[in-house]
Input
Amino acid sequence: MRLVFLGPPGAGKGTQARLLEERFGATQISTGDILRVQSEQTALGREAHEYMKRGELVPDALVIAMIEAELERTPSGWVMDGFPRTVAQAEALDEMLTRRGIPLNAVVLFGANRQTLIARLSARWTNPRNGRTYNALTNPPKVAGIDDDDGGELIQRDDDRAETVAKRLDVYDTQTKPLIQYYRRRGKLVEVDAMESMQSVAQQIVTAIRAEMPAW
Ligand code: AMP
Output
């Protein structure tokens, strides 16, 4: 299974990618998570962090090179969560997959309105060690501020602050939304209503993928 999850920040792409990973073993490839780890480790990562803090996209060349390296490490099933985010990235991904002879199975579009996304992002708590997220209202950890699994501290991401969230949603509208047309034209797009509960969205995804890939 090779999938792209497309949708605005706060739509639940990471949560659903994690569920698919647990259920079906498809590796989650999250550019945001990789960039956050690298932002503390390498000079390029620190440069990327400057864009992330402002809610802007990191330059295409940097994330494309990152994905190329991830594909080398993860040859079989995966779900891309947060990549591609520009048409140039989508074209680069097509080229990488064609070169390897491994087509995408589907692109899942997560639909949600702005009000819901803002509410979710402001209630979001993140495990900075692995990117796992909670929602203080709808999906809280067992103990406030503590990750259920590793027992470590949860944080509120810098870029989940209100001003930066508005910027990220604008960036999605102008730079990432054109990908909806891009993949629709290629017959790859399936849509889910991401405002439903976590379990309902998971079910919608499985149903949509099965319709695209009857053998799965
Ligand atoms: P996310 O965790 O997916 O919300 O990503 C957090 C931030 O990382 C984004 O606001 C961007 O600054 C950066 N980022 C993640 N993925 C990409 C990408 N595919 N292209 C450019 N920037 C990205």
The mean pLDDT is 94. Residues 78 and 200 are 21 Å apart (CA to CA).
